[in-house]
Automatic annotation (TrEMBL):
<dbReference type="InterPro" id="IPR008284">
    <property type="entry name" value="MoCF_biosynth_CS"/>
</dbReference>
<dbReference type="InterPro" id="IPR036425">
    <property type="entry name" value="MoaB/Mog-like_dom_sf"/>
</dbReference>
<dbReference type="InterPro" id="IPR005110">
    <property type="entry name" value="MoeA_linker/N"/>
</dbReference>
<feature type="domain" description="MoaB/Mog">
    <location>
        <begin position="195"/>
        <end position="338"/>
    </location>
</feature>
<protein>
    <recommendedName>
        <fullName>Molybdopterin molybdenumtransferase</fullName>
        <ecNumber>2.10.1.1</ecNumber>
    </recommendedName>
</protein>
<keyword id="KW-0501">Molybdenum cofactor biosynthesis</keyword>
<dbReference type="Pfam" id="PF03454">
    <property type="entry name" value="MoeA_C"/>
</dbReference>
<keyword id="KW-0479">Metal-binding</keyword>
<comment type="pathway">
    <text>Cofactor biosynthesis; molybdopterin biosynthesis.</text>
</comment>
<dbReference type="GO" id="GO:0046872">
    <property type="term" value="F:metal ion binding"/>
</dbReference>
<dbReference type="InterPro" id="IPR038987">
    <property type="entry name" value="MoeA-like"/>
</dbReference>
<dbReference type="GO" id="GO:0006777">
    <property type="term" value="P:Mo-molybdopterin cofactor biosynthetic process"/>
</dbReference>
<dbReference type="Pfam" id="PF00994">
    <property type="entry name" value="MoCF_biosynth"/>
</dbReference>
<keyword id="KW-0500">Molybdenum</keyword>
<dbReference type="InterPro" id="IPR036688">
    <property type="entry name" value="MoeA_C_domain_IV_sf"/>
</dbReference>
<dbReference type="InterPro" id="IPR005111">
    <property type="entry name" value="MoeA_C_domain_IV"/>
</dbReference>
<dbReference type="GO" id="GO:0061599">
    <property type="term" value="F:molybdopterin molybdotransferase activity"/>
</dbReference>
Length: 439
């Protein structure tokens, strides 16, 4: 078997290193995506975070007509530098059409966005003009150069040009561009359904009393919030106990309606970690250990049935709250975007100087939570948020990035270069209200 023929469902042979490097895991997961979702036509006003399903060629120029960029007076540029007095011929407001062409020695009063009269090619800002009766006075010293303050037809979007491509994610800017073309409805891919379960006898829903030894469910909330930010339709499936038959029933209950099933917890080697067994009973596990931290135990596979031999995809994320969120960002996010039909997404990475020594281990990529800042020369520097346990979710709140210490680095010294994954592009829906706190 060659590397190229490997799929994420190939059995990992005993003795082979079962800890997959991050990039290899993502590649294998992406190879399980078979086709984009079906297409539907929706109102533009509902298009936020949806994925465009066909290229958009512009049916018109934007702006549609040559127009003024300022409130002022439209004149012939060739007259500037030659005279200081003009006769006001008329007024054209935004939304109107000039009633006549500009006569020699005349000017039109004009507002921002109003179509330019025939014969006029320059607008002089109102602030530098004086009006005496019907006479407009523009002092020579304040006259602009010919052609100033005019927006040409099609200077933003040219009729016939390809504005957007199929596979483009739509947010405010793209939705605004489509609106500027007058498109009220657009073809997009149907949203994917993602079912989310938390697992563990100790896990309680917020609002319930905690029993001794209990903790509150964090992961369902971080995962559902991230998935909504990505534009998925979420199925909140609650909390499952550590009970194999119940896990099997619960997974079977969603495998026909979900595109992807996510669980958190119960995926490691503990006595009550039944998730991999439950998935194996219904389908296959492709791989389950990654050479990253946090996020080492992550089981990826497929739930199969006679009714659906292709089945539905499954990812069992680790239970520690930082590990489940970081694996969603790094491993599952590319899959989700691909399943949604999105093309060309690539999270931004930067190189920054380590502001302190950082420990890691050869053969494993560590992702510390960090605070990225820029010094007065624009040099990027990053420090960790302090304690880095996989259960310390405040480290993600205090940070604005992940710091990657590659598998070839056992130790990072202060001043060494490290790779940084800013939350602004990697953590779905992330908004900071304290980006530079402490710097
Ligand atoms: N002997 C070993 N022990 C552990 C290993 C290992 O390789 N060998 N891996 C460690 C790593 S790394 C991680 S990460 C965890 C992941 O284990 P599981 O996915 O089986 O998760 P659990 O054991 O169920 O839970 C781990 C931790 O997270 C808490 N948790 C679980 N679900 C939630 C939730 N929804 N919200 C908040 N917190 C949750 C749970 O109470 C545990 O404290 O295993 C290590 N152990
Ligand atoms: O995924 Mo675990 O969080 O590596 O500690």
């Amino acid at each position: 078997m060659t590397d190229q023929s490997l799929s994420c469902f190939d059995f990992i042979e005993p003795g082979a290193d079962p800890f997959l490097p991050l990039e290899e895991a993502v590649e294998r997961i992406l190879s399980s995506v078979q086709q984009p979702p079906r297409i539907e036509t929706i109102d533009l006003s509902s298009a936020h975070q949806r994925i465009l399903a066909s290229d958009v060629l512009s049916p018109m120029n934007v702006p549609p007509h040559r127009n003024s960029a300022m409130d002022g007076y439209a004149v012939k540029g060739g007259d500037l530098g030659q005279r200081e007095h003009w006769i006001v011929q008329g007024t054209v407001l935004a939304g109107q059409v000039p009633g006549s062409s500009l006569q020699p020695g005349h000017a039109f009063k004009i507002t921002t966005g109003a179509p330019m009269p025939e014969g006029a090619d320059t607008v002089v800002m109102k602030e530098v003009c004086q009006l005496k009766g019907e006479t407009l006075i523009i002092p020579l010293a304040k006259q602009p150069i010919s052609g100033s303050n005019v927006r040409q037809a099609g200077e933003d979007i040219q009729e016939g040009s390809r504005l957007l491509r199929a596979g483009q994610r739509l947010s405010s800017v793209q939705i605004g561009l489509l609106a500027s073309l007058g498109l009220a409805q657009i073809p997009v891919y149907k949203p994917i359904q993602v079912a989310v379960f938390s697992t563990g006898d100790e896990v309680h829903a917020p609002g319930q009393a905690l029993s001794p030894g209990g903790i509150y469910d964090t992961n369902r909330f971080t995962l559902l919030s991230s998935l909504r930010s990505l534009g998925c339709e979420v199925m909140d499936m609650g909390i499952l106990p550590d009970d194999l038959p119940l896990l099997i029933d619960a997974l079977a209950s969603v495998q026909h309606s979900a595109t992807l099933v996510l669980t958190s917890g119960g995926v490691s080697v503990g006595e009550a970690d039944y998730v991999k067994q439950a998935v194996s009973a219904l389908g296959q596990i492709g791989f389950w250990q990654l050479a990253i931290r946090p996020g080492r135990p992550l089981a990826f596979g497929r739930l199969l049935s006679e009714a659906s031999p292709v089945g539905c995809l499954f990812a069992g994320l680790p239970g520690n709250p930082v590990a489940s969120l970081v694996t969603l960002m790094l491993v599952i996010q590319p899959l989700i975007r691909n399943l949604q039909g999105e093309q060309g997404w690539q999270g931004l990475t930067l190189t920054a100087k380590a502001g302190e020594p950082m420990k890691s281990r050869l053969g494993r990529s560590d992702f510390h939570r960090g605070v990225l800042s820029f010094d007065s020369q624009g040099q990027a520097q990053v420090v960790t948020t302090g304690r880095q346990g996989s259960g310390i979710l405040t480290s993600m709140h205090q940070g604005n990035c992940l710091i990657r210490i590659h598998d070839t680095q056992a130790q990072v010294n202060q001043g060494d270069s490290v790779t940084v994954y800013p939350f602004s592009t990697w953590l779905p829906g992330w908004q900071s209200s304290h980006f530079t706190e402490g710097n």
